[in-house]
């Protein structure tokens, strides 16, 4: 049969090929050659190791994925290689500011009904406050201490900073903040003294030590603290962090703003150093980004998140996590799906590039120890090579007065982040929340928070889409997370992040912003959020109790080293609302 088929094939007549078919075939060959050359030519993009890194660490390669056991298996579905361009591209609107910000201003003056301190302060009634945590957590305690003293009609003693903390910063209030300004600026609101009266070297009255539950309302203070204050005359509230209700009457909220945005100012030496760093950043370009990057090993372990580092990551972070005995068993995938995990440095870089920031932009990075070190930072630095920190901008001699004190170093980062043209964060920790509120109060300066829920699923699928599609989705998901006015519904979130009682709008804003905002809400709530009735991109807020601590209460550079000295920690006072194990946690955990 085989020879017969060959003879039959040899006898087939050769058909004539028309000229048009010949030309079409030739054109097809040319197109194939050009396509091959285009594929082989090096494109204009960031270094290719970004895609390689995703393949092995984040399970997002075009042809490689991680198996359940941590091993790599080959996918049978061919997809387009995902690559980020160097340029930011053309983006509608101003990346560096809001067109509506001119219609809003901070307003925190007291009303005519708010009586002066002289009229309401009761003699021989003193409130002592012992703050807790790192710099930013202590800042919230200082702000709320003034309001607590006002509620109790008491004289406030300048708050004590957390000098017993594991990060060993013995700085007192006057070494971080301008204490004279603090007292004088608030003199009409609350009477403040630097210290209790002394006879010789001893305090006339020893403070009675107690603690109030978190989110304690004015009535809570009047029922729990006032009776003790009337009897003992001097009361110290310890571990004073988030011990005041989030929602208060307007005059008390405005008092919070006067403390936070006007009375609290860093010392002259810290302020001048921070302003010098800002000048150096501005000298490098017209605008600069300040990035608050939270990706420390302790914080990642506490969060229970997983970033695709295989068995090594699980082992390293799991060993740290075991040191917190009261932590619940976490579901890493669920944590990320719910937007409760910080973005990786690479994900932050991709988000910024998709929003329109090009590789020419200079970035100031405020961060602690990054898990994975330079290898983890490499993709971000490849996307944004102009990478700076206080250590690269200032000499060792210039930083010497601050470098031995974590709170003072954190204060420098706070100043630069506050003075940046755009503030970006990969987390929702205390510093991020406080700066977000501050930047809203002072003109709605560009503040970018990641929409963690939406971006997580997008990062998971990015290898299966073009850059243009990815960037378009990032811009859609980030509506409502860019620091625009009225992004968050009044009363939602922490007041320090969303001080709506202290932001006033002019008449023009009410017509322009409302029409623009409601049109966005109609579209965004359906296509972006899938949740009607919620403001565009409004973040989800989780209400944590002392029994369910959140990783956002940790602060970069201020996380206590977890070592043998943990067992030597002591509980100074007993709190009915906090379990002993959680009190120990609070000693370890900063903001």
TrEMBL record:
A Gene Ontology BP annotation from the UniProt entry: fucose metabolic process
Highest taxon of source: Eukaryota
Biased composition, class Basic residues, residue ranges: 51-61
Pfam families membership: O-FucT
GO MF annotations, alphabetized: glycosyltransferase activity
Membrane-crossing segments per the record: 12-41
Database matches in InterPro entries: FucosylTrfase_pln (IPR024709), GDP-Fuc_O-FucTrfase (IPR019378)
Keyword Transmembrane: yes
Keywords on record: Carbohydrate metabolism, Fucose metabolism, Glycosyltransferase, Membrane, Transferase, Transmembrane, Transmembrane helix
Stretches the record annotates as Disordered: 50-71
Annotated family: Belongs to the glycosyltransferase GT106 family.
PANTHER family hit by this protein: O-FUCOSYLTRANSFERASE 16
Protein name: O-fucosyltransferase family protein
Organism of provenance: Cocos nucifera (Coconut palm)
């Amino acid at each position: 049969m085989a020879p017969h088929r060959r003879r039959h094939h040899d006898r087939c007549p050769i058909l004539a090929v028309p000229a048009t078919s010949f030309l079409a075939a030739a054109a097809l060959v040319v197109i194939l050659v050009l396509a091959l050359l285009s594929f082989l030519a090096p494109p204009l993009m960031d270094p290719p190791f970004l895609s390689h890194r995703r393949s092995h660490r984040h399970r997002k390669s075009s042809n490689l994925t991680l198996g359940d056991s941590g091993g790599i298996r080959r996918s049978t579905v061919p997809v387009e290689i995902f690559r980020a361009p160097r340029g930011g591209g053309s983006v509608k609107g101003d990346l560096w500011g809001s067109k509506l910000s001119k219609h809003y201003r901070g307003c925190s003056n007291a009303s005519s009904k708010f009586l002066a301190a002289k009229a309401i302060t009761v003699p021989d009634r003193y409130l002592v406050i012992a703050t807790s945590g790192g710099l930013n957590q202590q800042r919230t305690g200082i702000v709320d201490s003034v309001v607590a003293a006002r509620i109790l009609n008491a004289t406030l003693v300048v708050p004590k900073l957390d000098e017993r903390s594991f990060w060993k910063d013995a700085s007192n209030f006057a070494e971080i903040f301008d204490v004279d300004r603090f007292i004088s600026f608030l003199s009409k609101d609350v009477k403040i003294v630097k210290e209790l009266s002394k006879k010789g070297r001893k305090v006339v009255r020893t403070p009675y030590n107690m603690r109030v539950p978190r989110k304690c309302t004015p009535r809570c203070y009047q029922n729990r603290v006032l009776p003790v204050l009337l009897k003992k005359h001097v009361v110290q509230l310890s571990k004073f962090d988030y011990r005041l209700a989030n929602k208060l009457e307007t005059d008390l909220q405005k008092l919070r703003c006067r403390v936070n945005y006007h009375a609290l100012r860093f010392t002259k030496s810290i302020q001048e150093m921070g302003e010098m760093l800002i000048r150096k950043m501005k000298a490098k370009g017209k605008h600069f980004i300040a990035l608050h990057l939270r990706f420390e090993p302790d914080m990642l372990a506490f969060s229970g998140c997983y970033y695709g580092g295989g068995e090594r990551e699980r082992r390293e972070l799991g060993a740290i996590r075991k040191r917190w005995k009261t932590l619940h068993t976490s579901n890493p995938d669920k944590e990320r799906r719910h937007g409760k995990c910080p973005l990786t440095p690479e994900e932050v870089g991709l988000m910024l590039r998709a929003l329109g920031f090009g590789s020419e932009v200079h970035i100031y990075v405020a961060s602690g120890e990054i898990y994975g070190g330079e290898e983890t930072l490499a993709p971000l630095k490849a996307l944004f090579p102009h990478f700076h920190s206080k250590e690269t901008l200032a000499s060792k001699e210039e930083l010497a007065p601050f470098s031995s004190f974590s709170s003072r170093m954190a204060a420098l980062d706070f100043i630069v982040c506050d003075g940046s043209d755009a503030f970006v964060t990969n987390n929702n920790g205390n510093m991020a929340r406080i700066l977000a509120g501050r930047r809203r109060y002072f003109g709605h300066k560009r503040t970018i928070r990641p929409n963690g829920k939406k971006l997580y699923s997008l990062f998971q699928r990015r290898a299966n889409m073009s850059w243009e599609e990815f960037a378009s989705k990032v811009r859609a998901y980030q509506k409502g997370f860019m620091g625009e006015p009225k992004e968050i519904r009044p009363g939602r979130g922490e007041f320090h992040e969303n001080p709506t009682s202290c932001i006033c709008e002019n008449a023009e804003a009410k017509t322009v912003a409302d029409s623009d905002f409601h049109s966005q809400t109609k579209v965004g709530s359906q296509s972006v959020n899938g949740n009607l009735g919620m403001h565009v991109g409004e973040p989800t807020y989780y209400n944590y109790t002392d029994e369910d601590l959140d990783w956002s209460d940790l602060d970069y550079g201020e996380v206590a080293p977890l070592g043998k000295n943990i067992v030597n920690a002591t509980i100074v006072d007993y709190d009915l609302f906090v379990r002993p194990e959680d009190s120990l946690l609070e000693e370890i955990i900063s903001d």
